[in-house]
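ARCHIVE ENTRY
Sequence with per-residue tokens
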Amino acid sequence: MPTVRWGLLGTALINRRLIPAMRAVARSTIVAVASRDQGRADAYAREWDIPHAVGGYAALLGRDDVDAVYIPLPNSLHVEWSLASIAAGKHVLCEKPLAMHPDDVSRLEEASVTRGVIVAEGFMYRHEPVNREVVALVRDGAIGAVRTIASGYTYAQSRAGDVRLDQALGGGALLDVGCYPVSYACLLSGRDPVQAAGIARFTTGGVDEEFTGIVRFPGDCTASVYAGFRAAYRTWLEVTGSEGWMRVPNPFKPGPVETIELERFGERRSIAIAGSPQLYVKQVEDFVAAVLDGAQPVVTLSESRRVATALAALHAAAAPEAMA
């Protein structure tokens, strides 16, 4: 049976979610893990029972027994190592955000077409049943024309030295967790943003630890997004349309059962949606189907470019010099 043979380009904490998911998918197997330090790669391979430990990312890309790579590196390295992986003929599943500028997504798309490989952005939530139902309801007109979207993601960041607090590595709340509500707004609007405004609270190191943004889309649709490292864990989504509204309390890491609250013309109902038994599995299944069956990934590069456009506009609008 054809199988996608994975190489892990790094030993990031998020791997603990992806490794079990990759092993739960029938046509998927993990072959190797790479670290810049051979000793760390060896220890990690032993811990996770991975056959091969590789010192250096480039060395992993040179392996003939690796078909696809998963890239969990800091944000600033996503484009560089995605391009290197594509050049090596590897399919790429890269953690969000795939890129911080739309031009970089275009570069990745052009390179992937030339090499004939799949590149997909790792927005796990996009594959989960509750969010598929939200999209279907909106597109079926359950609340009429979408007028405004409000979404956010917060958690208390307390780890000293975390890459999310390093400006040089693409840190900050907007790129780390703000990309989720930005992605959802782009998804539901289905259009490229035309205007953005943002206010941020910056650390002394120049990283936004709290971000409030507004994005306007064509067709009288606006979205407010919030991301922060200074509040307790919470995620939310509310969508208001010309005929009603809907609310999703836990859109980005849904549990075994999630409830969509919906009101239209004053009539309210709750829709219970069964979730996945194991998160990230559907994301891996989607990627494997794209590689082996030629299916289109759920998260297309067109969508990734739209998200990168919004992120870049928000980041620029909230930059300290923009507010001087």
